Amino acid sequence: MTHAFGKTLLSLATALVLGTGAATCAQAQQELRFTTSVPANSFIYADILSVWAERVTADSEGTLTIRLFPAGTLGRDASAHLDMVRNGIVDLAYFIPGYTPGAMTEATIVELPNMVPSATIGSVAATRMVEEGLWTGQGMESVKILGMFSTAPTLLTTRGPVASLEDVANLNLRGAGPTLLASIEAIGATPVGGLTAPQIAEALSRGLLDGTINEWVALTIFGISQTAQNHLNVNMGASAIMVAINRATYDALPAAAQAAIDRHSGEAFARLWGETFDARIEAFRSAAEQEPGRNFTTLSEAEQARWDERFQTVIDGWIAETPNGQALYDSFRAAVAEAAN
Q1: What Cα–Cα distance (Å) separates residue 162 from each residue in 38, 156, 246, 309?
Q2: Residue 173: pLDDT over 90
Q3: What mean pLDDT is predicted for residues 46-54?
Q4: Domains plus CATH for the chain?
Q5: Cα dihedral sign for 265, 267, 268, 273?
Q6: Above 50 in pLDDT, residue 273?
Q7: DSSP H or E run through 198
C-alpha cells in the first residue's frame, strides 16, 4: 500500500465515521410540536414561550428542537388544547385550565379575589403547590406539568362606568373560570362563561357582554380595551395558565432532552413568565392611562369594604366546596407570603 493510497483510505474512513455521526445526530434530534392560542406578535409568544423553547433546545445537546404554533394554528378552539396534549395530538400545549372545568380544580384558588398580588408571586406560589403534590388535578395523568402560572390580578372592564355595587347589578360580565364566575354573581352581576379570550372583543362590540374580568395583557393583546374603556381598579382574582407535555412523549425523550426540559421548567419557568408578565402589565396600563376617553375608577374605602364582604362569600364557598379546601387555602396563602419575601 502506497503512502498516498493509505492517506486516501484514511480520509475515506474518517469521512465515513463523521458522516455516520452526523446522520446519527440528525436522527436523534426530535422535533416537538407546541400549540398555543396566543398570536405570534404577542409578548407571551415572543418573550416567554419562544424564549423558554430556545433555552431548552440550546441546552438539549442537540437532541431536541421545539416548534411553536401560534394563534391556534394546530387547533382554533383554545378550550381543546389540553385534550390535544393529553391525547398526543400535539406534544406540548399552552392552555387555560379554566376552559376545561375539573382539570385542575385546585388552581382555581388563584381566581379568588384579593388572593394574588402579582404574576410573579402567584406563579411561584402555584408552582410550589404542584411540586409539593398539593395540586394534581383530574385526568392529568397523561401529561407532565412544565409550567404552572398565574396572571396578574384582573380588574373589571366595562362598556359603561362602574363605581358601586349598584352600577354593576345585572350587567352581563364574562369570567374565565368557575371561581371568577362566582365572584361576578356575588357582586350582583350576571356571569357569562364559555367565551375564550379571543372571543371577548366581538361579544362586547355586539352588546352580548357589558364587561369582562381580565388583566391588562389580555385587554391589550386581544383588542378588548378597544371596545370597553371603563376600568375599575378592584382585584377580582387572577387566572391560572399552564404548559404541559404529553407524558409518553416526555418519557420517550433522550436523557439530555429530559434534563434540559427539567432545568428550564418549574420555578425557573414560573419566574420567566411572572417577571415578564408583570413588566408588560405595567407598560400596557401606563400606555392606556395616556389614552383619551378612558375612565379609571378606584372604589372609595367604604365601597371597597362592601365589595370585600361580597368577595368573602366566594372565598368561603370555595373552601367549603373544594375537597380539603381549608388546608389548600392555607397552604397557598402561605406560599404566596413566602414568594413575596
Answers
A1: 29, 9, 44, 18
A2: yes
A3: 98
A4: 31-152+239-281 (3.40.190.170), 155-238+291-340 (3.40.190.170)
A5: positive
A6: yes
A7: helix 197-205
What is the mean pLDDT of the segment spanning 120-135?
A: 97
Tell me the C-alpha distance between 260 and 196, whole Å.
32
What type of residue sits at position 90? V
| Set of cell numbers at residue 175 | 369570567
Please name the amino acid found at residue 103.
Answer: A
Give the mean pLDDT of the chain: 91
